[in-house]
TrEMBL record:
Name the UniProt record assigns to this protein: Replication restart protein PriA
Entry note: cofactor: Binds 2 zinc ions per subunit.
SMART domains: DEXDc, HELICc
Primary gene name: priA
Enzyme class: isomerase
Organism: Nosocomiicoccus massiliensis
UniProt-annotated binding residues for Zn(2+) 1: 497, 500, 537, 540
Length: 791
């Protein structure tokens, strides 16, 4: 027997299959998808078996044997092997790179598989096991006969396979306290201390986080410790970040007629075992999630699995809660903040069928189920579904291919579908299902537009218009809450010398530096370059520096000063740490903080009953970006954030502050009119010959040397021009919108095409050529098929 193996070296020259002999003692263990060790040249490396075959055309005496097999069960399914190849071809990528993206990173690291006895193993399982070892058996040391003996118990889960990572041997602990069980109690005046002590004595040791969640401050904890009632301890925590958490009960709802109609259509596709793509277009709060939940229930009843995609899981804690509440332990949560070990645990639950639904962001589209019954992509228009680094892929396309393979429905849900998806639903490629009403009493708020041009004319130079100011004061007086959005982090946008007009720029990138007050420094948002805030102008030496533009940090300060209230700020700078999102959101909700201020990360999925006002401080931040999707993104953001208002009993109000009050993206967002926006945007796309009228490929050429970039760009242009038909359009080469990032000059070429059967061959050749070229001249070519941003 022979195996075709793809080796784990990311080099274009070895981006093909190599044949190895399967030694007899490994014949039963090796299957397509197995992770193996093979000798390659002078070294031993990891590889993946893509195919097992009886014969080979090669000279058998020259074929090297596979050395080891790493796991009991193959890590890849046949479907995923096939998918990875298809993706590599489409996105001009090395096959191994895609395989590595599909698998959890833990499988790339030095790890070994071991077998251990489970707690409820039978006597006979134990006896068999003990023949090999008392504690754990290293899988790669087993031969076929050994495995034959063990396999029945592995299948019955009496013997379990585990991965051991060198860096995860240490168990995770958190700080906490335990009672010293003294006979005396804290003084009767220290009510909080008495309460907390009772809690700790009743429930056993608690972590600081748990105690804080119960509403006790760190001060109370310290007082108990200082007074000797409790002692500090380290508490072992489980790796499942959601384990042990109590989820509020989310009941199954009786569907509204619109929901029922959508559900019935999808159910039919499930019952008929046919693949179909549905576009579930429903306004915010129209009950899309309820439809997802009931569709998934259907799928589970048929013994199949469901993949649930969300744009970013840290931003959707409420969604995860609803799924956990309905489906309990059947849910695996794939989270970008998971450690390698945690992520691997979740992956295994899926691969071994212990979890039946996987919920997660982009990479969750690779969930290793063997029997997918539906794939759902919530907020399908979100740009986070496209991976912006190698390997490039769009989760929507991957989902489509997987759903085709499994003959199951793909459901794309959104209040503001991508122009591409809506266009497909217009021509019947996708089946569109509409939810136009909210099932609850809540009305959809009608936003108001405030022209900041007029504000300026009337002498108000503040970033907060008079109208918004009035409403903020009104909400504060009524104890209601509000969400304010400013899509720009940092304190001030840039620094300018009032004397000579000099603006400090990043030395590595063609972009001005942003002032951050917390560390009193200037920072580059592209390369993380940082320098201390200067005291005088770097160009003319005058001490006349002025901060211009406003970021979330400054607004936070203004809000606190002006209204004398607490503000929760959410942006990249306040949410870096694990769990920070959830914590900020729960503080906002539980402590009824009047204002949640943030960048676009607050626009998604939040459902707070007491929020009755949403204010967009500057609706133009995205509109002004040099990208053909700028209008679309503006419309989406405004619509989405509007949906956060009025989720409770009180009607919500929304205000958009803008300098472009007549722009159609802003006008149609105000009118809540997706369809009119779509039609208008399509006119522009047609005229400017952009997606969905054309497909795009973005070529970015970069190097530290400007002359090399220009030469390479012009060469590449020539190659493409020669190979594509004259119906396609080539734009460039021209400098990228940001000409230099991290000291590298950048040029771009945009290809727009409708049909180019030979194109992918050309792209692969170019990629080949430039991966070699890179080694010679450090000039790199990046080929982005279906780019999300043309920047
Ligand atoms: P979306 O995902 O479209 O934003 P959700 O599914 O979150 O909407 O629904 C919004 C609110 O309406 C939620 O509080 C949900 O519990 C409630 N809801 C959804 N469907 C129904 C229904 N059929 N009957 C009553 N309430 C519903
Ligand atoms: Zn920089």
């Amino acid at each position: 027997m022979y195996a075709s193996v793809i080796v784990a070296i990311s080099n274009k020259n070895v981006d093909r299959l190599f044949t190895y002999k399967i030694p007899e003692h490994l014949e039963d263990k090796i299957q397509p998808g197995s992770r193996v060790f093979v000798s390659f040249g002078p070294r031993m490396i990891q590889g993946f078996v893509v195919e097992v075959k009886n014969d080979t055309d090669l000279d058998p005496s020259k074929i090297k044997p596979i050395q080891k097999v790493m796991d009991v069960y193959p890590v890849l399914t046949k479907e995923l092997i096939h998918l990875s190849k298809k993706l590599a071809d489409y996105y001009v990528e090395r096959h191994i790179k895609v395989i590595e993206a599909i698998l959890p990173a833990a499988l790339k690291m030095k790890s070994r598989s071991v077998l251990k006895l489970s707690d409820d193993a039978s006597t006979i399982a134990r006896e068999t096991f003990k023949k090999f070892d008392d504690e754990k058996i290293d899988v790669k040391l087993l031969d076929m006969n050994d495995l034959k003996q063990l396999m029945p118990f592995i299948n019955s889960k009496e013997i379990i396979e585990e991965k051991e990572f060198s860096q995860h041997t240490k168990k995770k602990t958190r700080r906490g306290i335990e009672s010293n069980y003294l006979d005396i109690k804290p003084s009767s005046r220290a009510v909080k201390q008495i309460e907390l002590l009772e809690l700790v004595e009743e429930s056993g040791p608690l972590t600081y986080e748990q105690i804080e969640e119960e509403g006790y401050s760190i001060g109370v904890i310290n007082a108990l410790v200082d007074n000797g009632f409790c002692k500090k301890i380290d508490i072992l925590v489980e790796r499942d970040p959601y384990e042990g958490r109590v989820f509020y009960q989310d009941e199954k709802k009786i569907l509204t007629p619109e929901q029922q109609h959508a559900f019935d259509k999808i159910k039919k596709s499930i019952d008929d075992d046919t693949h179909e793509t549905f576009l579930l277009h429903g306004i915010t709060g129209s009950g899309k999630t309820e439809v997802y939940l009931q569709v998934i229930e259907e799928v589970l009843n048929r013994g199949e699995n469901a993949i649930m995609m969300v744009p970013e899981i840290a931003l959707t804690p409420q969604m995860v809660q609803r799924f956990k509440s309905r489906f309990g332990d059947d849910v695996a949560v794939i989270h970008s903040m998971l450690s390698h070990g945690e992520r691997y645990d979740e992956w295994r639950k899926i691969r071994e069928g212990r979890a039946r639904i996987s919920i997660g962001a982009r990479s969750n589209v690779f969930a290793a189920f063997q029997n997918v019954g539906c794939i759902i992509i919530d907020e399908e228009h979100e740009s986070t579904y496209k991976q912006n680094e190698r390997p490039y892929y769009h989760a929507r396309l991957v989902a489509k291919w997987r759903a085709e393979y499994y003959n199951c429905p793909l459901i794309l849900g959104s209040a503001t579908p991508s122009i591409e998806s809506y266009a497909r639903s217009e021509v019947g490629v996708y089946q569109r299902l509409e939810l136009t009403e909210r099932p609850t009493e809540q009305t959809v708020p009608t936003p108001e537009i405030v022209s900041m041009v007029k504000e300026r004319e009337d002498g108000n130079t503040s970033i907060i218009s008079r109208k918004l100011d009035m409403k903020i004061r009104d909400r504060i007086s009524k104890d209601e809450q509000m969400i304010l959005l400013l899509n720009r982090r940092g304190y001030a946008n840039f620094l300018v010398c009032q004397n000579c007009g000099h603006v400090p720029m990043c030395p590595n990138c063609d972009i001005s530096l942003t002032y951050h007050k917390s560390n009193n420094s200037l920072m580059c948002h592209y390369c993380a370059y940082e320098e201390p805030m200067p005291t005088k102008c770097g160009a003319c030496g005058e001490h006349d520096l002025s901060l211009r533009g406003t970021g979330t940090q400054k607004i936070e300060e203004i809000l606190r000063d002006t209204y004398n209230v607490d503000v929760v700020r959410m942006d990249i700078d306040t949410t870096r740490n694990k769990g920070a999102h959830e914590k900020l959101l729960s503080t906002f909700e539980k402590e009824n903080i009047p204002i949640l201020l943030g960048t676009q990360m607050i626009a998604k999925g939040l459902d707070f009953k007491n929020v009755t006002l949403v204010g967009v401080l500057n609706a133009d931040t995205i509109l002004n970006l040099p990208d053909f999707r700028a209008n679309e993104r503006t419309f989406q953001l405004l619509t989405q954030v509007s949906g956060r208002a009025g989720r409770g009993d009180v009607e919500g109000e929304v205000i958009f502050q803008t300098y472009n009050e007549d722009h159609y993206a802003i006008q149609f967002a105000k009118e809540n009119d997706y369809r009119s926006f779509y039609l208008r945007e399509m006119e522009y796309r047609k005229l400017a010959r952009y997606s969905p009228y054309y497909f795009h490929v973005l070529f970015t050429i970069s190097s530290e040397y400007q002359d090399r970039v220009i030469k390479a760009a012009s060469d590449i242009h020539t190659v493409i021009q020669k190979d594509v038909s004259n119906r396609s359009i080539l734009i460039g080469p021209s400098p990228s919108p940001i000409e230099r990032i991290q000291n590298k000059y950048r040029f771009q070429i945009i290809l727009k095409y409708k049909s180019e059967p030979e194109l992918f061959k050309v792209l692969h050749e170019l990629d080949n050529k430039y991966s070699k070229e890179y080694q010679k001249t450090q000039t790199s070519l990046r080929i982005d098929v279906d780019p999300e941003y043309i920047m």
